Amino acid sequence: MTSTQTQRPIRILLADDHELVRAGIRTRLEEVDNLLIVGEAFDGRQALEMAGSLVPDIVLMDISMPVMNGLEATEAIRRRYPHMSVLVLSIYDNPEYVRGVMQAGARGYLLKDISAREMINAVTAIADGGYYFSSKVGPTLMEARPSCSGVDRYGLTEREREVLQGVARGQANKEIAKALGISVRTVESHRLNIRDKVGSGNAAHLYRIAQELQLV
Prior knowledge:
The protein is an alpha/beta fold and 216 residues long. The chain has two domains: 10-144, Response regulator (Rossmann fold, 3-Layer(aba) Sandwich); 158-212, Winged helix-like DNA-binding domain superfamily/Winged helix DNA-binding domain (Arc Repressor Mutant, subunit A, Orthogonal Bundle), CATH 1.10.10.10. 48% of the residues lie in helices and 14% in strands. A six-stranded parallel β-sheet has the order 2-1-3-4-5-6, with helices on both faces. Helix 7 (158-168) crosses helix 8 and helix 8 (173-180) crosses helix 9. It is elongated and about 55 Å long. The N and C termini lie far apart (37 Å).
């Protein structure tokens, strides 16, 4: 089994009208020690009802479901349970879908062709209070997400942003560790997580991302 940085179990409700899809996602996520699947819903209305009774931290929501679609369910969940986060899972990379779910209050949008590792990264980022979006929907994010400075479409945690800032400034791991009061090994671990989330460990690429996030 693998583990994530968040220590408290992250409670997850799965909502998808295809049983095989739910089973596949459950298998992926249950490989991680602190991810707990608390229930499965087969349509949007059931997802809304189960959100109230099971009180998950995150609802992993398919956008195309019967009775009540994922967009309507997301909006209803966010209205009734504002402390609850919704992560949308879809086969569609259409900008209209992305805008719709963001306006409904979702904190992330994943395409169903993602890897298990990316799904775990997304769940962890959202549990830590961040956002996460598949790279293929990146071009629409600045328009779709609530306006703010330094919008983070990569789902970096606050500590990862601090490490990225140090890297972009040309600091060595030892310097970053000293500045943040953490070990060099922890810095190295954060850098690996950053590389996985942004898709590259190249210094020039990391600098461009730091600029995008207004860290430098």
